[in-house]
Design brief:
It is a single chain. It is globular, with a radius of gyration of 29 Å. The chain contains 12 helices and 7 strands. The chain folds into 2 domains: 209 residues, no CATH class; 51 residues. It starts with a helix and ends with a helix.
Length: 317
């Protein structure tokens, strides 16, 4: 009799919890999930590619994880995964970061341009990810909610000259299809669900690395996060810099230049041109100062002969 009572209470309690879950809809997803409509530069999956690698400079990406990785990967003897793990550990010591709760199942979903390939628009991935999540929920009764980490990522700008594949460009049609399939995916679990999506790509990457319960869907970003997560990075103690925001990882309108040996972004190139112009002006000013100093010195020289006087006068002019 007691068992039946407790079971009844449990069912009622479970029903109450579910009824308190806010109804997920398209508007909520659209407002919660960030859209990267042309991220050609700051991409974890392409960090070793020459085009992207040469575009990661201190001009705009100073102190970001990928720039630190770029600088260290060729001089450190450790494996690339160990190098990245150490960078992530040190990164969250320096900047504001809140680890995922231990009672959450954190799921990364590849969305945006390639949702039909590496994302849940691919039915095989949809079904596989569904099975993994249901299995995790059945095996771990301590999980109280799902946290989906995602962004609508489009890797080619609409104004790109470096890439020609239009399938990876942003479109409203693609965005709507992404939202529809993601909403359908979330609703099937009937479980409390939160969305984590930040403008700062490093933050989302670190969030995945520090999840106690993690499921990834596919793609280089997911795979890298899973590798670091498996290495169990150390959780730092709160530091005095806990309120310091992570450095920006997205520079608006940063587009790779085509057929360039340096392959810098247009924004970075423009900055370099400005710096060069400024340096040239400074150099010219220094020359003028030097010439004026030479003139002053020449004017003070004692005039002994007419020939010398002519030379001095030339120096003075």
């Amino acid at each position: 009799m007691l068992i039946k009572i407790f079971n009844t209470v449990y069912v009622i309690k479970k029903t109450i919890i579910i009824s308190l879950i806010p109804k997920m809809n398209k508007e909520i997803l659209k407002s919660k999930i960030k859209i990267f409509s042309g991220n050609e530069v700051y991409r974890y999956g392409d960090v070793n590619a020459i085009k992207v690698n040469n575009s990661l400079t201190d001009d705009f990406f100073k102190n970001t994880i990928l720039l630190k990785y770029k600088k260290q990967k060729n001089i450190m003897k450790d494996s690339k995964s160990i190098i990245l793990k150490n960078i992530v550990e040190n990164h969250i010591k320096q900047y504001r970061f809140k680890s995922p709760p231990d009672d959450a199942l954190v799921i990364h979903i590849r969305a945006g341009d390639d949702y039909k390939g590496r994302g849940i628009g691919n039915m095989n991935r949809y079904q596989s990810l569904t099975k993994q999540i249901r299995l995790a929920l059945n095996l771990n009764k301590n999980i109280k909610k799902l946290i989906i980490v995602t962004a609508f990522h489009y890797g080619i700008s609409t104004t790109s000259v470096a890439y020609s594949n239009s399938n990876y460009r942003f479109s409203n049609e693609s965005l709507e299809k992404n939202i529809e399939i993601l909403l359908q995916f979330i609703k099937q679990f009937n479980y409390p669900t939160e969305i984590v999506s930040n403008d700062n790509i490093d933050y989302d990457f670190c969030y995945l690395c520090y999840a106690k319960n993690l499921i990834t869907s596919g793609g280089a970003f997911s795979d890298l996060a899973k590798k670091i997560n498996d290495l169990k990075p150390l959780k730092p103690k709160l530091s005095s810099t806990e309120n310091l925001e992570m450095p920006d990882t997205i520079i608006k309108n940063a587009v790779l230049k085509d057929n360039s040996q340096n392959n810098t972004t247009s924004a970075i190139k423009k900055t370099k041109q400005t710096k060069t112009k400024t340096n040239n002006t400074q150099t010219l000013n220094k020359r003028q100062i030097k010439e004026n100093n030479n003139t002053s010195v020449a004017s003070k020289r004692p005039i002994k002969k007419n020939n010398t006087t002519m030379v001095v006068n030339k120096a003075s002019n």
